[in-house]
Amino acid sequence: MEDRACPTWGACPLMGTANTMQCLAEALGMTLPGAATMIATSSELLRSAKLSGNQIVKLVEKEIRAGDIMTLPALENMITMMMVLGGSTNSVVHILSLAEELGYGDVITLDKISQISKKTPCLVNVKPNGPYHLTDFERSGGMPAALKEVRSCLNTEVLTVTCKTMAENMEAPLKYEPDRKVLYSFEEPISKDGGIAVLYGNIATGGAILRQSARYRDNLYHKGPASFRQSGGGPCRPS
Predict the structure, then answer these.
(1) d(CA 193, CA 182)
(2) Which of these, 119, 38, 110, lies nearest to 84 by C-alpha position?
(3) 235 DSSP β-pair partners
(4) Which of 86, 168, 173, 181 could staple 129 via S-S, CB 3.0–4.6 A?
(5) Which candidate, 238, 217, 214, places its Cα nearest to that of 228?
(6) Is 221 helix (H, G, I), strand (E, B) or coil?
């Protein structure tokens, strides 16, 4: 049972925070293509690590800095792929923090994330969205396949750490053909809206995050009492 639950060392096999952020780093253009979902025990990962080191030297020689890659259009790509993945809700916090650090905090907001969610399909059927693991996603083409699938939703002229644009990176052939049980097509997605929804209401006036791709899709409406406990006080009911 343990071997099935954790097939290798490394990150957990589902679309948790670690795997989500690895995938989003690739969507941002900050990793070599395909690096995000390489299996922890594979020799390919060791080769990718060496190639990454070589590429860092090339970036220094060309005077390409992180800020040249992590632009506003690249951050929008990051949000788009978060929706495609049905990624961890923690990724919202990380994206907002990164945007603030880069000086885009007034543009990359919960409202912006909500706008992108409403026009971006969810395609990746990895737990908790579906029954499959990150190893299955890797063998379905990983992030390069997912990026190609939603190419029309992305800013493909952004620069990446390859010193090429995302569009140029997409010209490379995929390692694996997508398994449509794992990576759904753009035309027939898991859902037409993104994996994460931004909610507003009197319980959370500043906004709340729901990984709606992990929901029970036949139970989208619920009516009932809501309560929460304040620090040092008793239960309170919203107005």
Answers:
(1) 17
(2) 119
(3) 229
(4) 86
(5) 238
(6) coil
> pTM of this prediction?
0.88
For residue 216, the model assigns a pLDDT of: 58
End-to-end CA distance of the chain: 47
**Mean predicted confidence (pLDDT) in 106-128:** 96
The C-alpha atoms of residue 79 and residue 109 are separated, in whole angstroms, by 11
What's the mean per-residue pLDDT of the chain? 90
pLDDT top residue among 12 and 156 = 156
| The pLDDT value given to residue 41 | 85
Q: What is the mean pLDDT of residues 2-16?
A: 75
**CB-count exposure of residue 179 (10 Å: 0-12, 13-18, 19+):** middle
DSSP codes, 82-118: HHHHT--THHHHHHHHHHHHHT-TTTSSHHHHHHHHH
Return d(Cα 176, Cα 208) in angstroms, integer: 37
Query: Which token pair is 206?
Result: 């500043």
Three-state SS at 208: strand
Measured CA to CA, the distance from residue 39 to residue 159 in angstroms comes to: 26
How much is the average pLDDT of 115-132? Answer: 95
DSSP letter assigned to residue 193: S
Cα–Cα distance measured from residue 180 to residue 197, given in angstroms and rounded to the nearest whole number: 24
Q: What percent of the chain has pLDDT over 90?
A: 76
Asked if 144 contacts 135 with a C-beta cutoff of 8 angstroms, the reply is no
